[in-house]
Automatic annotation (TrEMBL):
HAMAP family: Ribosomal_uL30_B (MF_01371_B). Belongs to the universal ribosomal protein uL30 family. One of its GO terms (cellular component) is cytosolic large ribosomal subunit. NCBIfam families: rpmD_bact. Part of the 50S ribosomal subunit. It comes from the Bacteria. It comes from Lamprobacter modestohalophilus. One of its GO terms (biological process) is translation. This is Large ribosomal subunit protein uL30. GO terms for molecular function: structural constituent of ribosome. Gene3D superfamilies: Ribosomal protein L30, ferredoxin-like fold domain. Pfam families: Ribosomal_L30.
């Protein structure tokens, strides 16, 4: 069974952001600026991306 995946890139710094937003970014697996991670495309990860949409860029399907 194929899983839906999406690539997410951190494009803005986490410094000075709300703790909940920092937690969402870390929960997505992002640690450094311009790092790209591949995550499952689920409602939970979509919600995390939507919460920090000003800090990340969705690059598309993996």
């Amino acid at each position: 069974m194929a899983e839906n995946r999406m690539k997410v890139q951190l494009v803005r710094s986490m410094h000075g952001r709300l703790k909940t937003h920092q937690a969402c970014v870390r929960g997505l697996g992002l640690r450094r600026m311009h790092q790209i991670v591949e995550v499952e495309d689920t409602p939970a990860t979509r919600g995390m991306v939507n919460k920090v949409q000003y800090m990340v860029r969705v690059l598309g399907d993996g």
